[in-house]
Amino acid sequence: xxxxxxxxxxxxxxxVVSTLGTTPVLAEGDAxxxxxxxxxxxxxxxxxxxxxxAKRMAELAQxxxxxxxxxxxxxxxxxxxxxxxxxxxxxxxxxxxxxxQNRLERIxxxxxxxxxxxxxxxxxxxxxxxxxxDAGRLAGKSVALQGLTALEYLLYGTGAETLSTGDxxxxxxxxxxxxxxxxxxxxxxxxxxxxxxxxxxFSEPAPANVDFRSAxxxxxxLLGVFVHSTELLAxxxxxxxxxxxxxxxxxxxxxxxxxxxxxRAFAAALDGFRDLYAAAAxxxxxxxxxxxxxxSAMFEMETARKAITGLSLPxxxxxxxxxxxxxATYLLxxxxxxxxxxxxRIAPGLGLSAGFSSLDGD
Length: 362
Description:
This protein is mostly helical and 362 residues long. It has two domains: 164 residues, no CATH class; 150 residues, A middle domain of Talin 1 (Up-down Bundle), CATH 1.20.1420.20. It is 64% helix and 0% strand. It is globular and about 60 Å long. The N terminus and C terminus are likely disordered.
């Protein structure tokens, strides 16, 4: 897609936003099916799939340690890619058990603005600190040592080439990290499958609940997925490495740049937005104009997804290419547009606050 076409698409997106004005969007209807749909068709299976991939990743890491070879390294890399995609789809849900006990950070400590996590991983490798090779002891250490960022460095970072010929310490460290991710994701899957747990409180809100006491509170959390997570992706994942222009791009600030999974992670997140919206099917509680606009926002996300996955360069490298950064720039505009759509257009019509805090999981 040419830069001119991107510009026209961006302008069209912004014009669509402006046409809605402040028309009320809430139609008569029960929020129950929306909330149940979100849980049963997206959130619960999303965490189950994530845990399945995390368990498989731990098994692949063990295989690598037992039989180091190019083949087992490749299998571990493929498992890591599937795990990143599974996490990126469900990471958009930033409420409930995932924001308790530092689980978000335990799974993915990012951004690491001062490089503290990287320094901790490198120090453990340099010191051959045996405590990081045991998942039980690793659980009590820094969250930066226990998640995807640490595992990515162990599988792809400086010195990772030794894994194919045998590096017992590094591999044991990677296996411990993968095990910790499996344990943490297992906690999330269990929490959402508990018939008397978060799933019930969210989909059947009641005044006696400690968290979701009304349908409005549950809807606000659901709406927050589209607000908080689009802002997260735009402002803390994409904008920092995209920069103002190609000359100011910083590809190594991109998530998963070492593994070359930046575009796949963003694409998986966009898939998550699409699938959550389809699972919740909020059309029956939205006025027709708002329902159409919500569908339009999902269409724009899909267009952006196709653009970034169709790049000939990795997304992080494309940011530094004056001729190739158009799709990433377009994605940034779309993410911010969707954020504004849900916070400024749909939220007021649902009787919810348009100014609730973002990026804090509340």
